[in-house]
Each structure stands twice: as structure tokens, then as C-alpha cells.
Amino acid sequence: CGAPVSSIDWESTLAMPPCVRRFERTIPVHVLEREADLTRTQREGLGKIETLTLLGVAQETTTSIPATPATDRRIDAVLFVRASLGNTRALESTATVVHACFPHPSVLILENARGDVCLSAALTSRRKRATGFAVNAMEADSDIGSWRRTEQGKAFLSSLAFETLDQRSLAHLTQDIMARIRLARVARLVGFYPDPGLCRTPDVVAVIERLLECQGRQDRLRARWKAHGTTQRERLRLRIPLSEAIDQTKAAVDELTRRCGR
Q1: Which of 14, 18, 15, 23 shows the shortest CA–CA distance to 107?
Q2: Which residues contact 193 (CB under 8 A, 6 or more apart)?
Q3: Using one digit for the tens of pLDDT, what is the confidence trace for 175-184?
Q4: Which tens digit of pLDDT belongs to each residue from 117-143?
Q5: In angstroms, what CA-CA distances link 205 with 20, 34, 256?
Q6: Cys-Cys crosslink for 166: which of 176, 192, 227, 254, Cβ 3.0 to 4.6 Å?
Q7: Helices (H), the chain
Q8: Nearest-CA neighbor of 255 among 207, 192, 206?
Q9: What's this model's pTM, rounded to 2 decimal places?
């Protein structure tokens, strides 16, 4: 059976060309559990999924997008997958588990019955060993972001059309999607969705990384400040680093806004 009806027209959003093999095929969750050699906690994470659907596969042989030449990695395909999760809101943690199940880079759409939508993309290592190919743990180079019904959210979705992505190699394709997901997180901070084309230069990438790092530090400090067990003395010690993190975040927002011409 197919996946539940989505509030978003993903076929039009992704705009995958005919050279991308289309499937709309259900992936049995128990097959992933068996083949990925998951821990008990990871199996529990997969248990939140009601339906997992393979939407399409971009391969070197059908798209003419080159595989990544590397001795320790075989990136010759990118999977496009959709997951329906019922009422749970554990979208991000579930995404991490699902990505780790695939030996290829994957782009994952997660939706729940509440209308929440999460998009993620990850490069997954597949290394050759004496016994053949075996799947290693997912690498840290993954990005997860939530979609919101805002002008920035609409701009983010419009940026995902296949023809607009970096097609120098399948690895570049995946990394470009990851970068656009990262920009969706940035958009919530700067108030607009930056042009992905302007955000490919090293100097702008550095500003984006600094902004996300500063915001992350600010979030962690705020969480410590608000924690039930934090004493008044500890809150006093947190005032200066929290104020510095706020100022650094604002400076990064201002610089990115200036560089992107807004």
C-alpha cells in the first residue's frame, strides 16, 4: 500500500526528472531492523514509523551525474525516502536512525499526523573490508530541519527542485540538499530564506556556520539558566557568557543579512 496523503505535493516540490528512478515502494521496517544490525534503542526509534516509502533513486547510470571518486566511499546513488510517523513528535531522532540504516546517501521526508514536517539529508559511509562491503555508522555530516508554514518555509521548499541542485557529483548533490536544509534553520534566525546560490562561497559558509554555532551556544546557556536545579549563583555566572552569545548571534545575523543583500 502507498504512503498516507501528504499536505505537501512532494512530487512537484522535488521535481525529480525522468532519469531519477521512481518507485513509490513501501520499505518494510522489519527489513531495515534485520539488515542494519540496530541496537535496541534504534529499533525502538524505527518502531515509531507507520509507513516508510522509497520515492526514488538518483544513480550515476541513469542520471549521468558522476559517482564520487574516493577510495573509502562508494557514493553512486542517492535515495529519496518518505516516512509517516503517526502522532509522535520525535521526528529528528527518528531521522537519525533511518539514515543510519542505508548504505547510500539519503534524503528523508518525515511527517506526522499533527502536520509537522521534517526534512533531513545525510552522507552515509560504505567502506570496503576483507569480507566485502559493510555499512559503518552514519557519519556526522547530516542536516535536519523542520518545515514551517511561513514565507521562509515556502522559499525553502521551492529551493529543493532537482534541476537547481549541484550536479557535479552525487556527493555534491547530497551536500547541496544538506546546505539548503541548513539554510532553513538559518531562515528562522534572519527572517528570510537566503539564496542558496549566494551561500556557496567559503566566506558566506563560514558566516552561516558561525551563526549556527553561536545560536547553539545561546540555546544551551538558556537551557542551563532555565533548568529547575540551577541556583541563583549559577545564574549570575551565566549572565556574561549568555550576553556574549546573544551579541555574537546578532552580529552573525547582521553580517549574513548584509552579504545576502537583504
Answers
A1: 14
A2: 151, 152, 153, 155, 156, 159, 183, 184, 187
A3: 999 999 999 8
A4: 889 998 875 443 434 444 444 343 567
A5: 29, 39, 10
A6: 176
A7: 10-14, 29-35, 40-46, 60-63, 91-100, 151-158, 170-190, 202-226, 232-259
A8: 207
A9: 0.84
